[in-house]
Amino acid sequence: MENVPGIGKEDHRIDLPPGFRFHPTDEELISHYLHKKVMDVNFWASAIGEVDLNKSEPWDLPRKAKMGEKEWYFFCIRDRKYPTGLRTNRATEAGYWKATGKDKEIYRGKSLVGMKKTLVFYRGRAPKGEKTNWVMHEYRLDGKLSHQYLPKSAKPSPF
């Protein structure tokens, strides 16, 4: 094993074999990473960092990633646009993430376990934002792993 340059932060280097690539499937991201993170906030994945997407511009994300050259993975708490509402806040100082297309269902075998939403970053403010080439895929638990089936200890407080 050797230390791979350019992977991780200076204080969080990851020792990996030459040629290692982190390319999980959508189902693996939901079942083996996101579900475990929701169940245990102390869950740690060496390839996935934590970031507040509302305080990070897309061009800053590569510096915050633990690994990756053109794809990066992060855990992020979903921010609400309004304290009592259900709408998600996807705005940053420089722009906003806009959902595109239809959400994709993620299955483990025949069971629905999650959903994948594709978002594109726009500079400026809606509705006059300028589309960029930054694309993000947002994953959420659904089906048998959805919020309603989780134990109370795993559910975040609304306050």
Give start-end ranges of low-pLDDT stretches. Answer: 1-11
Taking all Cα atoms into account, the compactness measure Rg is 17 Å
Q: Which overall shape is indicated by the principal axes computed on the Cα atoms?
A: globular
Structural class: mainly beta
Strand order of the largest sheet: 5-6-7
Detailed description of the structure:
The chain has a single domain (25-151), classed as NAC domain (Metal Binding Protein, Guanine Nucleotide Exchange Factor, Chain A, Beta Complex). The protein is 11% helix and 30% strand. The chain contains two helices and seven strands; from the N terminus they run E-E-H-E-H-E-E-E-E. It has helices at residues 26-39, 61-64, and strands at 2-3, 15-16, 49-50, 74-75, 95-108, 111-123, 130-141. The strands form three sheets. It has a three-stranded antiparallel β-sheet. Strand 3, helix 2 and strand 4 (74-75) form a beta-alpha-beta unit. The N and C termini lie far apart (45 Å). Mean pLDDT is 82; it is low at 1-11.
